[in-house]
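Action item from last meeting closed. Structure (212 res):
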């Protein structure tokens, strides 16, 4: 039977909205001048759900242009963790199935990974833009022999304009990934908060410098 990609995408969006509204159980993990990262156990797999919150010195549209999932988009230019991004199937105007290939990390300790996700994008009336993804299977995207398949669970970004501050944007993120392979979970859980803080640092530089 065909997968209901649109239904899976909307269910993931509902989960991420729920994470945003639920203040309970978050424990601080890391804080820099650009972002604060907290975590709590994931409801979906045997790892953690991470929440990140930071203010970026740019309009919501500019931040969105830097992070939105699109082929040939700006993200592959500034985000060192993303090696390749491709759309496998456009389901409708808001939903697509995508494959992201990541670079190796931790000086090669973590080899490149691929993630196949259904991605949901929506802009709300207050100007907030949301991008959400969760892992799916797709017939055009079987696992590749030479690369480890990882799995994202409901994750995404809220790109939120700040009223009266057109050049400042709140970026709120949720991440929960099973990176696959044989890595100890302790290695993964120390690696993810570092990756998130680097993401915000590199994004801050990108919104200031990239020509759009």
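Sequence:
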């Amino acid at each position: 039977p065909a997968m209901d990609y649109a239904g899976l995408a909307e269910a993931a969006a509902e989960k991420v909205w729920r994470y945003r509204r639920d203040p309970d159980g978050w424990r601080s993990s890391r804080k820099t001048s650009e972002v604060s990262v907290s975590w709590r156990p994931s409801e979906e797999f045997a790892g953690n759900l991470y929440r990140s919150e930071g203010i970026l010195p740019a309009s919501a549209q500019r931040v969105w242009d830097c992070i939105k999932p699109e082929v040939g988009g700006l993200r592959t230019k500034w985000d060192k963790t993303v090696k390749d991004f491709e759309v496998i199937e456009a389901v409708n105007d808001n939903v697509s199935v995508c494959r992201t290939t990541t670079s190796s990390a931790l000086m090669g300790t973590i080899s490149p990974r691929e993630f196949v996700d259904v991605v949901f994008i929506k802009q709300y009336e207050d100007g907030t833009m949301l991008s959400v993804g969760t892992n799916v299977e797709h017939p055009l995207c079987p696992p590749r022999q030479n690369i480890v398949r990882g799995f994202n669970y409901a994750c995404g970004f809220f790109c939120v304009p700040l009223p009266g501050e057109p050049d400042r944007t709140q970026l709120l993120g949720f991440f929960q990934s099973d990176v696959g392979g044989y890595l100890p979970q302790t290695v993964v859980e120390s690696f993810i908060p570092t990756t998130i803080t680097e993401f915000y640092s590199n994004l801050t530089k990108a919104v200031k410098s990239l020509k759009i």
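Note appended to the action item: The CA atoms of residues 41 and 48 lie 4 Å apart.
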